């Protein structure tokens, strides 16, 4: 059922075929292409069973690869929970060894709004409480930036509570607005986390939106690492001795000179990491 329902992305009028690829099923739905529902200018009729068979074979291959790791012990220790990260009451204090979280990126994608077709197909109800708990800015319910900030902050507080001391939390994030980066660092430090560095993570294959708007759309993310320690060191606001604009120019020039040229993502990542480590993201937010 899951594999078949996944094919709904290819068997509706919002499916945009890619004329540059030979097979008719090598495109994508408008939800993934535009982050909106949009009728394709030239809808195509594909053979669903062909793609069902391809997916079925991939699932079988994946099961064969992982079956050696699946046993009574791993099954009994696994748990899948649907809920909100703002309330992890089912997890005891200081009982988690590691947290890897990839939250929504502000107003980038209205997830619940875009799940309408799939929820209808699978007969899954979406309640007003679900919308209230969705951490986004904007969307059909016009949630504010403060709504998003509050939900993210509550989630970080809960993650701090359940994580053991001397263990790590990795926070995957991507956004062009420095205010959101400042929020994450400030909230994590207020909870007691210690910033432990950031790592760049590329996407491998660029998205349609990135290819369509190469100079306004960012690809890839940063993974911000935090530790929960007894006596955390906080990021000190550096005595910069220059205005924010000069720091930005110097940072851009530095990364371009270092790499003999730089992409939009390299410049953005360098600015964010330097802003994190020198403590001037709040200035970027204001200016």
Structural description of this entry:
It is a single chain. This protein is α+β, with helices and mostly antiparallel strands and 287 residues long. The protein folds into three domains: 1-78, no CATH class; 88-234, 3-Layer(aba) Sandwich (Rossmann fold); 238-287, no CATH class. It is 44% helix and 13% strand. It has 13 helices and six strands. It has helices at 2-6, 30-34, 48-66, 72-77, 111-114, 116-122, 128-133, 145-162, 178-191, 208-212, 244-259, 264-278, 281-286, and strands spanning 15-16, 28-29, 96-101, 163-173, 193-201, 221-228. The strands form two sheets. Strands 3-4-6-5 form a four-stranded mixed β-sheet. It has a two-stranded antiparallel sheet with strand order 1-2. Helix 8 packs parallel to helix 9 (178-191). The protein is globular. It starts with a helix and ends with a helix. The relative contact order is 0.09.
